[in-house]
Amino acid sequence: MIGMAFLAMIAMIFTSCEQNAGSRNRPNNGGFGVNFMSHPSATAVFSIHNETPFSLVAFRDNVSLANLLGGIPVGSQNHGIWRNPALFSEAGGAFTVVFVTYEQFLVNRDNLNVLNNTPFTRIFHVYTTAPRTFTISGMLGGQNDLVVQNQTDFGVELRIGGVSGSTLSFIPAGITTTTISVADVDFSIFPVFVTFNPVNGIVTSIFPQGPFGGTWFELVNFSEASPQVQTLSLCAALVP
Asked: Regarding beta strands 94-101 and 167-171, do their DSSP bridges make them parallel or antiparallel, or are they unpaired?
């Protein structure tokens, strides 16, 4: 009888340790003020496919607790972000979503403002009653730096593999230089320039044309073992 009790105690300790170890990599709902629960489309402002190897935390426009939208677990699909009425009062408004990793959030939670200078990635969205689904590219988060110089007057979405591919990042108009951490792979980047008319709520997408026809793109090469830095220059001539 004593032996059975001892074995049960050992099993409980092992299970407890296993659960605690897992919780470090799988944030629970509400941990440190971040809600990782997925919301259905009826109450979501947008949804995320998270292809990155990180759990992410989303903010509206800038990184601060007042603008916290919620968390997205690693590997999640169709993860709905709550349409918080305190942050989304009416449909038709455009905004930028800033993402940081959950680890970045934990390390800097007492001074989140510093993360506005080094966000993990961004997306651009117009709040409508039919939430859009974004795919955050798994190319993000590696040891290499892609330095993007946006010399245009437009915001630009960087998409992977084609104009309808996953999102590497969004760079708002007025931000001339952005550094994005990317993985050890070669891939093509298709920039899509966007404008928003607040009067009619219409987003216009501009696809730059290549010199020999087709859509303009840039091939970047990050396939070496050591960290690399490459620059992607987006000049005004790309926007007709």
From this structure: unpaired
131 and 162 within one domain: no
Domain membership flag for residue 12: no
Q: What Å distances lie between residue 235 and 168, 188, 215, 220, CA to CA?
A: 19, 17, 15, 17
d(CA 41, CA 78): 9
Q: Tell me which residue has tokens 């509206």.
A: 60
The range of the structural domain enclosing residue 165 comes to 137-240
Condensed to tens digits (0 to 9), the pLDDT of residues 48-59 reads 999 999 999 999
What letter would DSSP give residue 114? Answer: G
CA 31 to chain CA centroid, Å, is 19
In a domain, 19, yes or no: no
Question: Are 135 and 220 contacting, i.e. CB atoms less than 8 angstroms apart?
Answer: no
pLDDT tens for each residue of 206-234: 999 988 888 999 999 998 788 999 999 99
**What predicted TM-score, i.e. pTM, was given to this entire model?**
0.84
DSSP 27: P
Q: pLDDT tens digits for 124-179?
A: 998 876 778 999 999 999 999 999 999 999 999 999 999 989 999 999 988 889 99
180 Cβ contact partners less than 8 Å away, ≥ 6 residues apart: 121, 140, 145, 146, 148, 158, 168, 169
Within this chain, do residues 143 and 49 fall inside the same structural domain, yes or no?
no
